[in-house]
Design brief:
The complex is a heterotrimer of chains A (497), B (269) and C (233).
Chain A lengths: L9 H7 L1 H9 L2 H21 L3 H20 L1 H15 L1 E6 L2 H14 L4 E4 L3 H5 L2 H6 L4 E4 L2 H8 L16 H11 L9 H18 L2 E4 L3 E3 L4 E6 L3 H7 L3 E7 L3 E2 L5 H13 L6 E5 L13 E7 L3 H5 L2 H4 L9 H4 L2 H6 L10 H12 L1 H4 L1 H4 L6 H5 L6 H13 L18 H14 L2 H13 L11 H4 L10 H24 L1
Parallel strand pairs in A: 1-10, 2-3, 2-4, 4-7, 5-8, 7-10
Antiparallel strand pairs in A: 5-6, 6-9
Helix pairs in contact in A: 3-13, 18-22
Chain B lengths: L17 E5 L2 H5 L2 H13 L3 E3 L9 H5 L3 H13 L7 E3 L2 H15 L10 H10 E3 H8 L11 E6 L2 H7 L1 H10 L4 E4 L14 H4 L1 H17 L4 E4 L2 H13 L6 E3 H10 L8
Parallel strand pairs in B: 1-2, 1-3, 3-4, 5-6, 5-7, 7-8
Helix pairs in contact in B: 2-13, 4-5, 5-6, 5-8, 7-9, 11-12
Chain C lengths: L7 H20 L20 H14 L3 E5 L4 H12 L3 E4 L10 H7 L5 E4 L8 H6 L3 E4 L3 E3 L4 E4 L15 E7 L3 E2 L2 H8 L8 E5 L4 E2 L7 E2 L6 E7 L2
The chains are: A alpha/beta (497), B alpha/beta (269), C alpha/beta (233).
């Protein structure tokens, strides 16, 4: 197995602190209300975006099958993509770990003596903690998506995969700008705030040597890198600087160009309820001879970082169908309560719970799969029908499996196992599979109900303890049946007399 | 937008003479009244209810905690308690979902002396009906309301909603009660935060969720809320009691029975 | 952190080998003919008028300004809009997309106080000019999509990528006769998989963001205004 541990980003450490994070963020009323408001907004937008349930369901099924086909052919499509991109003049690099990816990017920048990087939104670059890696090498790395820019200015991380600054309200952003931007006068007018960001960032686009972006779909058939965005910063990063480096996970490849329209349609509608994003940018090559703009060099970095581990298991492979729309978190009652930072992982919410264990190992993330009621809202809205609740169950199973020498499905398997808990379930099974033992234990629970403690840990911190009944349903029905049998007997006796 | 709810695809049988009742472990030890009421309601419709004494728990608690082997052992025993080819009516949506949708996955490939074959498991799964589903689609119950005018809310457990479509059948049953106004509370479809061991393992998140759920139910200004799942109700009623709110939830079987009989419904906790 | 930088080609080639080997081990023997059929949603057919109405309505919903005019009327419309915006400089290609010269009439017909800035330079040493001295731009388009209110641009040496991106106001000429029902049908009809240029961009409104408290703001980085000159003959 891979040595993820050496390469954990700083997020991993905080994944262990999940409980502390949850306590901290649940207690933050402003944060709670920011998330509730944002989730209500995004859920309503999505709901309005689908005119008919029929269309939605046909599209979801189609897109699920598209992604499953592309995954079934993944190694071949990656080779085809590489081949096509290189023919088009785009250089392809491969990285198994986040450090490898960062090193490749750092060296590509160094080769061009790059000093200033502007970044379009890329969750994969968050995954690799690229900004820190580059800053340590004296390369200035500026986020240009408005949400990412705010988050970077606040020295935070994104709390949502498509709306990074969703945890802040406009008053907080106004204060942030007033505190950090020379000459900015506190204003909560969103237009004013955005125009301030625009002014600063346009200067940077003009100056930057390097643009870094993510990729939404990489088309194998044509060697096309597709980017979905509303702001235009993605186009800026991929058009204005001399060097463009795109980074993406290996699961983002699709086979045909014709796979793109249905996926795009579901992506934008599921994410923000938009029929389409303002810009859909399809990059096929660097600047050609005679063209007046565009980067002179384009590179693509393909990152594994645990994805091949998920790929190796048929059930877990479905995790890789994800097109990163964020609908699962928008509809998640847990995410709505605790917000994105509490997870301590780059990808928060339901998708984060099922993808992070492959990136960081179950040892650093075993708390995540259990932090769900399995209510199923995520699976219900997922545009590519990832059975998230089922995968959560599977991860719980892997997490409590006894450690063994056999080949592991997952790094960190068994990390969540406690001997006490395992014993409790053994006893539970023993009791519940034996009608006699079950009857006996229920008799005990009901007869000694006065012994039921008034305090039951976390349960009674906000609830009263439930009280067992005086007699179980089993007993009441048994006596009912006996009574009936007796009556029947009596009536036959009477009749025969 | 149900993920696995297959109500609309299901072929419902004609009204049977006999059914099994699966009472669930929570009803057995905490809320036997609801079980008794469900049986009375079915018997009023002329159905004989068989309650196998060997039943215990559907296995969901262990299954949801990742202890698949333990869940399997318990689930197998349940299947064996219901051998006759008659419906198995389950008075909790989430247990019903477990038995109808997850047993084949859990038990299908198992081998050993206790084990049936896939056909037996499949047959069992197909005989499982959630209580309100059974009332609406098999009995086609048209309850005659004899109770006083009142406003109630309906809370549906998430698993029951998404796997068994209980929000549709529950809604249909309550809507047929002439004197009852069904009130939709805010965030009606949102989870109450129970989630079995989740409520213990992540007690603070669960607490935040049930605080919102109980607040929204209270704000809906109803005299009671009705649910087909005692797991959720143990959670929500426990919170309401702790908050010294008078609102309580009642199992839909008890509520329907009292409306039909015209006796005033009492809240159960 | 690595102290000594390994050669990135060596890193990449080792990673490539490992990743592909792992993935291939999992799919060996897979029968791709047995993959389930993917059934697309069949959208209803609409008349050209209906498609046009949808196109306009989607664009306007997304805060674009749509002005129906004729080839002869373009110059007048642009002149009026620029006057209203108090702009006197217009950036535009020497020729329009594909090398056609149809811009000539437009350019000749503009108000005399409008200064034309031809995009006849390489961006390399002219970023300041492009970012700071070009308040508005005019471009043509290849075709458009009704369902989503989308304009398709295939930038080339005549109309570079940044023409439609950097200036704060973007005028775009759209021919109503080149309207397709949806993206999928457009790709199929034009056989895109055979001939993609350096860059294709689909534009469905002015630049926008809702990143601050879900409040929509226009002109985040790209054009603040998208003015569509719709030729409907």
């Amino acid at each position: 197995m891979k040595q993820f541990n050496e390469e954990e980003s700083k997020y991993a450490a905080s994944a262990k602190a999940f409980r502390a994070n949850v306590t901290r963020d649940l207690g933050n009323e402003e944060l709670r209300s920011n998330f509730r408001g944002a989730m209500d907004y995004l859920m309503a937008k999505r709901k309005d975006a689908f005119s008919s349930e029929d269309e939605l369901e046909v599209l979801r099924e189609q897109c699920k099958l598209i992604k499953q086909r592309c995954l079934a052919k993944l190694p071949h499509l990656l080779e085809q993509l590489e081949d096509k991109l290189e023919t088009n003049g785009i250089k392809v690099h491969w990285a198994e770990t986040i450090t490898e990816a960062n090193e490749i990017i750092a060296q590509l920048i160094a080769q061009k003596k790059g000093k200033t990087v502007v970044k379009g939104k890329s969750m994969v670059s968050e995954e690799t903690a690229l900004n820190d890696y580059l800053e340590e090498r004296n390369v200035e790395c500026l986020e240009s998506d408005m949400g990412e820019y705010i988050v970077q200015l606040a020295k935070q991380h994104p709390s949502h995969i498509i709306m990074p600054a969703i945890h802040q309200n406009k008053q907080q952003v106004a204060k942030l700008f007033a505190d950090n931007i020379d000459g900015f006068e506190y204003s909560t007018d969103v237009d004013t705030l955005i125009q301030q960001g625009r002014t600063i960032l346009r200067d940077k686009f003009c100056q930057a040597d390097v643009g870094i972006s993510g990729v939404n779909f990489a088309v194998a058939e044509t060697g096309t890198l597709c980017l979905v965005e509303n702001e235009g910063n993605g186009r800026m990063c991929t058009t204005i600087p001399d060097l463009h480096i795109a980074i993406t996970g290996i699961e983002k490849v699709v086979e045909h160009l014709s796979d793109v329209p249905p996926l795009l349609s579901l992506l934008t509608r599921s994410a923000t309820g938009q029929a389409i994003s303002t810009y859909f940018n399809m990059i096929n090559s660097p600047r050609k001879e005679g063209e007046k703009d565009g980067p002179k060099e384009v590179h693509l970095v393909l990152l594994d970082n645990g994805r091949s581990q998920a790929f190796a298991d048929e059930e877990l492979r479905q995790t890789l169908q994800c097109i990163r729309c964020g609908a699962c978190m928008n509809h998640c009652p847990v995410y709505t309560r605790i917000g994105g930072h509490a997870y301590g992982t780059v990808y928060p919410g339901p998708i984060g719970k099922i993808i992070s264990p492959h990136m960081l190992g179950l040892d650093a993330t075993s708390n995540l799969p259990t932090a769900s009621t399995l209510c199923g809202a995520c699976g219900e809205v997922c545009p590519v029908k990832i059975p998230i609740p089922k995968i959560l169950l599977r991860l719980r199973e892997e997490s409590v499996k006894p450690k063994s020498d056999k080949p592991q499905v997952m790094q960190g398997q068994g990390a969540g196992r406690s001997n006490v808990e395992a014993l409790i379930w053994k006893v539970w099974a023993l009791v519940h599979k034996s009608p006699t033992l079950y009857a006996l234990s229920m008799w005990g629970v009901t007869r000694f109900r006065f012994l039921m403690p008034k305090k039951l840990g976390g349960w009674t911190s906000v609830r009263t303890a439930p009280k067992p009944a005086a007699k179980t349903l089993h007993e009441r029905l048994k006596s009912k049946q006996e009574k009936r049998a007796k009556q029947a007997k009596q009536s036959t006796n009477t009749a025969s007399r | 937008m149900q993920q696995v709810n297959t109500q609309h695809l299901r072929n419902y049988p004609k009204k049977p003479k006999q059914v099994y009742l699966f009472g669930t472990c929570i009803v057995d030890s905490f809320f036997p009244d609801s079980g008794m009421d469900a049986i009375e309601l079915l018997e009023r419709e002329g159905i004989e209810v068989i309650y196998p004494q060997g039943q215990s728990c559907c296995g969901q608690p262990a299954y949801n905690s990742g202890y698949k082997e333990e869940a399997k052992a318990v689930a197998l025993v349940q299947v064996k308690q219901f051998p006759l080819d008659i419906p198995v009516v389950v008075i909790s949506g989430s247990c019903g979902g477990m038995m109808r949708h997850h047993y084949l996955d859990l038990l299908g490939d198992s081998v050993g002396d206790l084990v049936g074959n896939n056909a037996e498991i499949t047959n069992f799964c197909q005989r499982v009906f959630e209580f309100t589903e059974f009332l609406v689609h098999v009995l086609r119950l048209k309850p005659i309301d004899q109770g006083p005018k009142e406003r109630v809310a309906l809370h549906t457990s998430c698993a029951a909603r998404r796997e068994m479509g209980v929000h549709i059948t529950g809604n249909k049953l309550i809507s047929q009660l002439a004197n009852v106004e069904l009130v939709l509370h805010d965030y009606e479809s949102e989870c109450c935060g129970f989630g079995g061991t989740f409520a213990v393992k992540h007690a603070d998140i669960s607490a935040a969720m049930v605080a919102d759920k109980s607040k929204n139910l209270v704000a809906s200004d109803v005299v009671r809320y009705v649910s087909a799942d005692h797991g959720c109700m143990m959670n929500i009623n426990g919170a309401l009691d702790y908050q010294k709110e008078s609102l309580r939830g009642e199992h839909i079987a008890s509520y329907l029975l009292k409306r039909i009989k015209g006796t005033s419904a009492k809240a159960s906790l | 952190m690595t102290n000594k930088s390994a050669d990135i080609n060596a890193i990449s080639s080792k990673a490539r080998g490992n990743i592909l080997a792992k993935l291939k081990a999992e799919v060996s023997g897979a029968d791709y003919d047995k993959l389930p059929e993917e059934i697309p949603y069949i959208y209803p057919e609409f008349s050209h008028e209906e498609n046009l109405a949808q196109f306009i309505s989607e664009l306007e919903k997304n805060h674009a300004q749509v002005i129906q005019t004729t080839k002869e009327g373009i110059a007048e419309v642009i002149s009026a809009e620029l006057a209203a915006l108090n702009i006197t400089t217009l950036l535009c290609g020497e020729k329009c997309y594909g090398g056609n010269d149809v811009h000539r009439d437009v350019i000749n017909g503009l108000d005399s106080n409008i200064e034309l800035q031809p995009y006849d330079f390489s961006i390399d040493n002219n970023k300041e000019l492009l970012f700071n001295e070009c308040p508005a731009a005019l471009s043509s388009s290849r075709c458009s999509i009704a369902a989503t209110g989308t304009i398709v641009l295939w930038p080339d040496e005549n109309e570079p990528r940044s023409l439609s991106l950097v200036p704060p106001v973007h005028f775009v000429i759209v021919d109503a006769n080149k309207l397709h029902a949806d993206f999928a049908r457009l790709m199929a009809a034009e056989q895109w998989h055979d001939k993609l240029p350096t860059n294709v961009v689909l534009i469905s409104g002015p630049s926008k963001t809702a990143d601050i408290q879900q409040t929509l703001a226009y002109g985040a980085h790209g054009p603040k205004a998208l003015i569509v000159l719709l030729l409907n003959s």
